[in-house]
């Protein structure tokens, strides 16, 4: 596998973020990060055009690129085939060979394109460089347009795929993703929002939306408690765009967990989207001990 530059990306339901890395002695140095909004409900051509524009911008004149992308499940990570169809996003990418699509539009060889699970990438990055350092058993939860979950059990990392797990009167993602807030705002505030950020834009809206965050924190505590009772984690790490509003639900979450009998440390990722980049890079380099400068 020959390359001069590494691009590590994180693809979500509303964006794509890509970091550019280069070798620096025995380490791999982070050069820059770029993020653009991408509506995952758009057409195939529009989604791929946005992705490819960013890849080309970061690749520059270099034609020896290694590209790693963190992608939500269900997905054939080895072959690069998207099988997402029941989560309200990327419907127009269903069944596509994304390795071929990307390679044909960029100076990147198909064999130099790798896909990894986004939840696993998040937790691998956090375990190596973030809040999970030194922990043997971790639960990672990414809260965004969808719900991502991953476990570290000793040396093994895996996508827990709990988004569709039965929970309350539906599935977990019904209560812990952006759509829950969208529905709450429509029902209780008679406003239309596209994301949680809109509930935090001014004090008046924050005040009106506090009941939503209290209910969300209770739901999240119940969800965490179910799996901590089963696996007895050392720590739970939260990431994703919804955690940017953690000042509205974190304290209530800890109190709800305590009521449930769970007093494990719950941390908000300080690396932010960098955790996914580091996890992607470690995964595609096929080592958990890659050295980074960050």
Keywords:
294 residues; Nucleotidyltransferase, domain 5; six-stranded mixed β-sheet; 15 strands; globular
Describe the structure.
With about 290 residues, the chain is an alpha/beta fold. Helix content is about 35%, strand content about 25%. The chain has eight helices and 15 strands. It has helices at about 45-60, 100-105, 120-130, 170-175, 180-190, 205-230, 250-260, 275-285, and strands at about 5-10, 15-25, 25-35, 65-70, 75, 80, 115, 135-145, 145-155, 155-160, 165, 170, 235-240, 265-270, 290-294. The strands form four sheets. Strands 7-4-1-2-3-15 form a six-stranded mixed β-sheet, sandwiched between helices. The chain has a five-stranded mixed β-sheet with strand order 10-9-8-13-14, sandwiched between helices. It has a two-stranded antiparallel sheet with strand order 5-6. It is globular and about 55 Å long. InterPro entries: ATPase_NBD (IPR043129), ROK (IPR000600). Belongs to the ROK (NagC/XylR) family. This is ROK family member transcriptional repressor. Pfam families: ROK.
